[in-house]
Specification:
10 strands, 8-stranded mixed sheet, alpha/beta, about 270 residues, two-stranded antiparallel ribbon, 11 helices, about 40% helix
């Protein structure tokens, strides 16, 4: 039993692109619907919920009927712009089935690096939560590009979710991914891979076990998730990494059950 999780009230939930898209490139409506249901129930239970959602590029590719992610940055920006609008449209529709209002917050790295814009972002989160609205956060990929002299990108939403958890002083970050947790080796290639149930520190040893990129739709891999966990532990916060196959797993996680990999400092 993970007793320290039981008292968590302010929770950031991050879901990756691969969890929102099916293998054929279409949108996984079932996951979005289940996610909307679970997060609404949690909010009705008094939890303060923030959702960090990837998916703008993936949804954009699907909406524009494009078979592959374009190579040029302007084309990617255009796909992200269309996809972000459609992604929020989907979230708004599915959350409305459960009478839950959502709001959108798009962020770039420079927002949290400058004190005034950082305060403005925190104020936006605080007011939305005060109004029982679930903020849905994504990187502003339509304008945030990683070029020379334009390093405003978080690079992946794993880092973004840890940063959001940091600036709003969240109690817990739950990272929903396409893997059940962090293993000592790649479980898809090694059936004898062992899941780490609890990790107290992310060191060079753990980083060496992580490798590879994310799916064809996303940018994250296990290495980025461990970097996010390292940021969380530095701020004396908690994080759970688990699979997004069934979002109702969030109920069990918040009930303290040992699901996925739990990152927590020993001195917390």
């Amino acid at each position: 039993m993970r007793n320290k999780i039981l008292d968590c009230k302010r929770i950031v939930i991050k879901i990756g692109t691969s969890s929102l898209m099916l293998a054929d490139g279409s949108v996984n409506y079932q996951t979005i619907d289940r996610l909307a249901y679970v997060l609404t129930v949690l909010r009705n239970q008094g939890k303060e919920i923030v959702l960090v959602s990837s998916g703008a590029i993936g949804v954009g590719l699907n909406h524009l009927n494009l078979p592959h992610r374009p190579k040029s940055i302007p084309e990617q920006q255009a796909v992200a712009s269309v996809g972000q609008a459609e992604l929020m449209n989907l979230y708004t529709r599915f959350f409305s089935h459960y009478n839950q209002i959502v709001g959108q917050i798009l962020m770039t790295l420079d927002i949290v690096q400058f004190p005034e814009s950082r305060r403005n972002a925190v104020n936006a989160f605080e007011q939305l939560l005060k109004m029982d609205i679930i903020p849905i956060v994504n990187e502003n990929d339509a304008v945030s590009v990683e070029e020379l002299d334009h390093l405003t990108k978080f690079g992946d939403n794993d880092r973004l979710s840890a940063t959001v958890a940091e600036i709003i002083s969240a109690d817990l970050l739950i990272m929903l991914s396409d893997v059940p947790g962090f293993y000592d080796k790649n479980p898809t290639a090694h059936p004898d891979a062992v899941l780490f149930h609890t990790i107290h520190a992310v060191t060079s040893k753990e980083m060496a076990l992580a490798g590879g990129n994310g799916s064809k739709f996303g940018t994250g891999g296990m290495a980025t998730k461990l970097k996010a966990a390292k940021q969380i532990l530095k701020n004396k916060q908690q994080m759970v990494l688990t699979q997004a196959t069934d979002p109702t797993v969030l109920f069990d996680i918040l009930a303290g059950k040992e699901i996925g990999t739990y990152f927590v400092r020993e001195d917390k």
